[in-house]
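Lay summary. Proteins are chains of building blocks that fold into shapes, and those shapes determine what they do. In this project we predict the shape from the chain. Here is one chain we studied, written as its sequence of building blocks.
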Amino acid sequence: MLPKEFTANAKHNIRHKGSLRLLGVFACLLLILQFGLLSPAQAKKVKQSEDKAKSVISYVEGEEKSEDIPASMRAGLFTLTADSALIKHVGSARVNLESSNVVNLDKGETLVFSNKPTVVKTGSYDISVAPEAIVLVSNQGEIVKIRNLYEKISPSVTVHFNEKQTTLAAGQEILLGSSTDVVKKALKSDLIGRRQVHGLEFTHGPSIMKCEVSLLSLIQNVDILNKLMCSKNKEDRDIARRLVKMAAVVSQVTASHGAYTSIGF
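And here is the predicted shape, written in a compact code that computers can read:
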């Protein structure tokens, strides 16, 4: 449940403006819940994130002009179309299609929206994505991050490594690194809100951390999601609406799991 101090306001927004507007109105409040008491410098960063979130979500809802969005967030996206999925990236990713339902990500970050079962190969890992799921995959050499952003059936993402596997439901993330230090450094290098962070222990293979991740903080801090939210393309806007709705749903359904925290804040 949401805290009592803004439960009444939440009900008002749900009745009159819907779940998308609810997410925009509460962007700052959710961040404050996630990060706790803030110093003046931290409060300034949260205020900037609040303003960005409101602008982005208002634009997705068609209530704000594109010129009101920062220029750095209006740059275009690149799209690869496979038989089984749409693949989005910002141009710096090295990604190609191995076959009609297999995507190879050599380096960088890409978003995959599947319409049929799809496999994403990156490094030594294979990621199986169920139909009607959206997954964000990042490969930066020593560290691979996989986030499940949207799904119709849970869990919709399965990560395969060293003849082992683990699943991800919407709002979950897994980090696979060459060592524990590499994974810990990755956790501290961004402003992403996380909770229930725990390691997965295997005799051989990569160092692994699995957690729940704040979809709202991903939307605010990940370049490809910023650009997706601000795109004028109909296809992009459809994906953006799905992400915003899923962020609102996950926030409500998993509220009892506790607050997100940003390790690097």
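What the prediction tells us: Residues 76-216 form a domain with the Jelly Rolls fold (CATH 2.60.120.1440).
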